[in-house]
Amino acid sequence: MSATKYQTGRHFLQIPGPSNVPDRVLRAIDHPTIDHRGPVFVQMTERIFDGLAKVFNCSGPVLIYPGSGSGGWEASLVNILSAGDSVLMVETGHFSTVWKNIAVKLGLDVDYIPGDWRHGVDTALIEERLKQDTGNTIKAVAIVHNETSTGCTTDIGLIRKTLDNANHPALLLVDAISSIGATDYQHDDWRVDVTIGGSQKGLMLPPGLAFNAVSEKARAASKSATLARSYWDWEHVIAANKEGSYPYTPATNLLYGLDEALDMLFEEGLDNVYARHTRLAKATRCAVDAWGLENLCIDPAEYSDSLTTVLMPEGFDADEFRNEVLERFDMSLGMGLGKIRAKVFRIGHLGWFNELMLAGTLCGVEMGLGVAGVPFNKGGVVAAMDFISETSKDVPE
Ligand SMILES: *Cc1c(COP(=O)(O)O)cnc(C)c1O
Asked: What is the pTM of this model?
C-alpha cells in the first residue's frame, strides 16, 4: 500500500508517528457515528477523561481537540500568554523549532537557546537565564520532552527543579506528543502547567486529536492572557466537558478509538507498557551499535524509548537508503527533518509494537543497508535478538 508497486503482507510503518494502529482500535473506530450530545457519548466521554487523567497523571482537566499536535501547541500558547510576553525555549531539534516559530508568529518574544540537535535541554542554561531575569519578565518556559527529530529526551523533573532553584514563577509548558503512552509522564508531580499530547504516537491512534493537560496555575493565568483565542479557548471546552460534551462537534470515531486504546494500555498495565518501550529501545540500540553506526543522541541518559535516530555514514544519503527499504521491503522509516534531512534515518519503536515486529523492522534495516551499499557490520539483528532473549525473563507473564 505504501511502496509504489503492489506489495503483499503487512506494511511496516516504523516511523515515529503515526505509529501502527492496533486492529482493535481500527475496529472500534469502525462503528456508526452517534449523537455527540446523547447519553452513550456522555458515558464514553467520562470514561475517556478518567483514562487520560491516569496516562498524563493529571488531576486537572485534560482537553481533547480535533486537531494535529500542532493545534495543541497553539492552544498551549494562546490560552496563557499576551502579545509581547517573553517565552524561553530551547533548540533541541526540528519540533522545538516549529513550536518556536508558532510562538514568534503569535507575537511572543522568544528567547531561543541554541542547541546542537544531539542533546536534550541543558538545565544549566535555563537556570542562568531564569536567575538573570530578576524582574520575572519570562512568562513561560517551553520544552520538548521527547524530541522526535533527534531521539533525545529531556528530564522534565529536572527542569522543574531548575525552575524551583531559580525561584522563578514562569509557567512550564511541555510537548509530550511522542512520549505520552510510551514513557512515564507525571504532569502533577513535575508541576507542569500545560502538557501537549497527540493521538498518533504512543496513544496508538490515527492522527487527528491533540491534548492539553492543564494546571490550576495555567487556568488562572488564562484569565488575564489576551492573545486572541476562540476555538482553542480552554474554558468553553472545560465547561462543556463537565456535561460530557463539547462546544463543537468532536471527532466521534477517533474518540471510540481513544476509548479502546486506553483500555488496551490499562490491560497491559502502564508500567508494563513503559518497560516494553524501554526494552525494545535498548534492543534497537544493540543493533545500531553492532552495525557500527552512530546514534544521533550522544548522552545515554537522554536516549529515547520511542525512537532511535541513526546517523548515515559520511557520503551516503539516508533518503536513498530509506527509499530502498520502502520499495524492496515495504517498510517506512522516519526521514531526517529540517537541517538533518538525508543525514539520518529514524526507527520508530513506539505504540502498538512487540519483539517480532522489532525483529522484522531491524531485518528490514539490515537488509536495506546491504542493498543500498552502505558500509556497516553485519550482525545487528542477531545482537538485538540476543538482548531480547536474554531479557525475556524480566517481562511479566
Ligand atoms: C509529531 C510531533 C509533533 C507534531 O505533531 P503534528 O500532529 O504533526 O502536528 C510535535 N512535537 C513532537 C515532539 C512530535 O513528535
From this structure: 0.98
79 phi and psi angles, rounded to 5 deg? -80, -25
Report which protein residue has its CA nearest ligand 1's atom 5. Answer: 69
Which domains does the chain show, CATH number per domain?
12-19+270-394 (3.90.1150.10), 23-266 (3.40.640.10)
Q: What is the pLDDT of residues 129-153, one digit of tens each?
A: 999 999 999 999 999 999 999 999 9
Cβ pair 287, 384 in contact under 8 A: yes
Closest residue by CA, ligand 1 atom 3? 69
Question: How many angstroms separate the alpha carbon of residue 95 from the centre of ligand 1?
Answer: 7
Closest C-alpha among 201, 203, 196, 184 to residue 270: 184
Ligand 1, pocket residues at CB < 6 Å = 17, 68-70, 95, 144, 148, 175, 177-178, 198, 201, 207
Sign of the dihedral defined by the CA atoms of residues 23, 4, 285, 336, in that order: negative
- How many CB atoms sit inside 10 A of residue 389's CB? 10
Q: Which atom of ligand 1 is nearest to the CA of 17?
A: 1
